[in-house]
Amino acid sequence: MTSETSDATQLVHIGRQAVYDRAGEVFGYELLFRGSADATEASKRSMHATSNVIVNAFTEFGLDQLVGTKLCFINLTRDFLTGDLPLPFPPGMAVLEVLEDVEIDDEVVAGITALADQGYQIALDDFVWGLGHELLLDLVQYVKIDVKSTPAPVIATTLFQVRRHPRIKLVAERVENDQLLDLAHKFGFELFQGHAMGRPQTMSAVSLSPSRVRRLELFGALTAPDIEFNQVVQIVTTDPALSYRVLQATNSAATGLPRKVSSVRDAIMLLGTDRIRQWVALMLVSDIAEATDEQLSSMMSRAKLCQTVAERLGVATDAAFTVGLLAGVAELIAVPMDELVSKLPVTPEIVDALVDGKGRLGEVLSMVRAYEDTDMAALHSGPVTSSELARAYLQAVGWSVKTLDGVSSGRAARRLPPPSALKKQA
């Protein structure tokens, strides 16, 4: 699901195959694991693959980009169905597909019953009557049948049994040619998936790489008997990738937000520590590579410098930290700023600062960028002197180095980068 682009970023990939209705219109999309941009099929169907699909669909691409307003189907392994691994998104976001190789025992039935009671829609993938999955028919909304590998008489018998549950929609999958499409129509399937209508597409995006150690630390804090909210906020805000993913997860998995957020703290409060814990657990399973210390240090220094300057100007410091952080994220993953903020539930003040440099937050960011670029003319005309900025910069780098040393203890000591290197490194 990932491939390297640099030490601090990576390419993430996800497969998407459309599901069509009888009129040939797209009904929804199944999201599939892809190990590379040129992969045409999943290299694995495992807990790791499912975790990668969920994490990247919600926190890297965003469901809006992947499926728009259409229905989303995601394959789940036993670990998710029994509750051993969490589903970090609420009901209504995706249809949960039970893979055909999941052994249906009491634990799985209990887990799927609980998911159905919560309001999740369930689909049975590659359904074959008599293997035990028929025990779930009272709980599911979709049944998918492989029309390529299943003899026509067996399809007919299976459909007769499934249609005793009238709420179930029948999906013909592996419809690889026109003959199979005609057959599926004659059998009365409601939905169709296969090469006869459209092949899977592989989509790719540049992703910022979160620190594995930071995720472990955060997961530990979230599973402590007495969760310290301020500690959770501190851990998240000291990893740019975690911060970005929390904002993305808030945007993707908490639809109908009562308000926009102005900081990572706001996002954590809206999403809730339970949901944050679930996302972090999946990030650990998906095992995304760490960013380099140099890249993280530069981004953290910029965010902290924005926060320090904001404090001296009487501007909201949490919002200023977020502005500095997102400015670094956008440059690092080479995404236009307006595109980046369109995916995040941030306040109009943050959007104006990042996209147009407007407002008090825009003033803060402009001053920090002027210092990074050694733009003396801009600094002379600003409300904070260059000497004050120099002291603030040194404090920001010192804080960044100290913070990241806690994550990467035992590594070689970092050298202090010159101000002009911050932007270049990002």
Tell me which CATH architecture of the largest domain applies here: Alpha-Beta Barrel
Q: Nearest-angstrom radius of gyration?
A: 24 Å
Beta-strand residue percentage? 5-15%
The largest β sheet comes out as: 8 strands, mixed, barrel
CATH class of the largest domain: Alpha Beta
Proportion of helical residues: 40-55%
Whole-number total of structural domains: 3
Element-by-element helix/strand order: EEEHHEHEHEEHEHEEHHHHHHHHHHHHH
CATH superfamily of the largest domain: EAL domain
- Write the CATH fold name of the largest domain: TIM Barrel
List the helices and strands and how they pair.
Blueprint: E1 2-4, E2 9-21, E3 26-33, H1 47-61, H2 63-67, E4 71-76, H3 78-81, E5 95-98, H4 106-118, E6 121-124, E7 142-146, H5 152-162, E8 169-173, H6 178-187, E9 191-193, E10 201-208, H7 212-222, H8 229-237, H9 240-253, H10 264-271, H11 273-286, H12 293-313, H13 317-332, H14 337-342, H15 348-356, H16 359-372, H17 376-380, H18 386-407, H19 419-425
Parallel strand pairs: 3-4, 4-5, 5-6, 6-7, 7-8, 8-9
Antiparallel strand pairs: 1-2, 2-3, 2-9, 2-10
